[in-house]
Amino acid sequence: MLLPTVRDEAAAREVAARLRAALSEPVRLDGMSFDLEASVGIALFPDHAPDFELLLQRADVAMYNAKEARTGVETYSPGKDRNSPARLSMLGDLRRALDRSELELFYQPKIALRDGHLVGMEALLRWRHPDKGLLEPEAFLSVAEQTYLMRSITHYVVQAALAQTAAWWRADMPVQVAVNASGRDLLDTGLTEVIEEGLLARGLPAAALQLEITERILMNEPAYASDTVSALAELGIPLSLDDFGTGYSSLVRLKRLPVEEIKIDSSFVQRLADSPDDAVIVRSIVDLVRTLGLRSVAEGVEDPETAERLREMGCDAAQGWHFCRPMDAAAATEWLYSFAVPSVKAPGGA
Known about the structure:
Elements: H1 9-23, E1 27-29, E2 32-34, E3 40-42, H2 52-69, E4 73-75, H3 85-99, E5 103-112, E6 118-129, E7 133-135, H4 141-144, H5 149-170, E8 177-180, H6 190-202, E9 209-214, H7 221-224, H8 227-235, E10 239-244, H9 251-256, E11 259-264, H10 266-269, H11 276-291, E12 295-298, H12 304-313, E13 317-318, E14 327-328, H13 329-339
Parallel strand pairs: 3-4, 6-8, 8-9, 9-10, 10-11, 11-12, 12-13
Antiparallel strand pairs: 1-2, 5-6, 5-13, 5-14, 6-7
């Protein structure tokens, strides 16, 4: 669609919203009713392209971004264009970062709300970029996720996390370390082999490592039903379901996966004190998780009031700046010692 009278993104998004609403009306064909969903990509002249052909191409790029992100509407962004110079440059830098060991893991504790014991550590990827400083995943992972580099990054994260976990276990600190996995990772048949060999080489039990997957992966049948998930279950690798509450999980699927932990999305947790609706959602999730016999963990806890309210609700554990910010490996090790080694619990309970 060419809209000559639309001059800015806000107006274009309004048109896109009306289009999606119109297209969502059920369509009847041969006596059957079909529900449709549309994804819309927006590109503006001259902001995004100087001519019609490039404008159409970039609207197409934005439309596919909307499909992949399931957002419905996306405006063209050079950083999300797989063919843009900025993206290609970032990929080149990231490829070299792997070779030069510029990627590293930071660690953030998960703390039991009932007694203050340590439940585990989440490994968080960082990139020490030689020019841009310390970058968080949001700055570069979206570029890597649709390329072969993602597999290499995931394997690096697993190996680095296992190496650090083994060092802590040798120091009589049996900490469970969680690493994040994407839907693409769960389709990688080599991931289980990397994990199994890494555990054996370091003498670690399967429960020493935890994989965090987002709730959206439960909606992805290929990832959910993949051989990798089955192999991970056989190996005994526990799963943590991240960002819970933002998707539409099937409880049947949830029970079939080797999930031991549900993480309540920070968007609900951070509005706990101000939004009665979010408080109801959090309490409902905590009750559901308890009924399923799993551990509940609240993300993004930044103040003592929120932590106390979660404890009163019966939430098992929490993580966030109120307890500790992410730390590099050396700082995390010092923190574990100062936290008091006897309270560092073996994996399994909150």
